[in-house]
Amino acid sequence: MVFKFTDMNSGGVMKSIYKTILIDCDNETEAIELFKARFDRHPRNVTCNCCGYDYTFVDFDSLEDATALDRMCQMSQDYKTFHEKPSTDEDAAYFSKFNKYVTFDEYIKLSTDVLVIKMVDAAS
Length: 124
Known about the structure:
The protein is built from 5 helices and 6 strands. It is an alpha+beta fold. The chain starts with a strand and ends with a helix. The strands form 2 sheets. The chain has a 4-stranded mixed sheet. It has one domain (about 1-124).
C-alpha cells in the first residue's frame, strides 16, 4: 500500500522541500509513524487555523497508481485505477505535472519535489 502525502502550503509555506511524499508501507499507522520520524511533525498538524491540515493523504495500491494523475496516465472506467498509457481525456494535461505523459521512472527522475520512502529503506 502506498500513502501519498501532499503539502497543502498551509500558512502560506511548504513544510519541507517536498510537495509530494510517497510512503510505501503496510498501513496508515506505519505511514504516519514513518512520516513523523522523517519530518518531526504529524501530517495532520494544523499550522494555520484557516487553512486546515498541513498535509492531505490518500492511499493507493502502488507507487504507479499514486503518481498516475501527475504522470497523465489514462484513468480506468471505475475511476480507481489507471492504465500505463497516455490519457485521452481533454483535461488530463491540466492535472498532470508535466503536461504530458511520463513513465514512473521518468517522473521520479524529473521530480525534485517528490520523495519516495519505502518501509524497508526506513528501517535501515
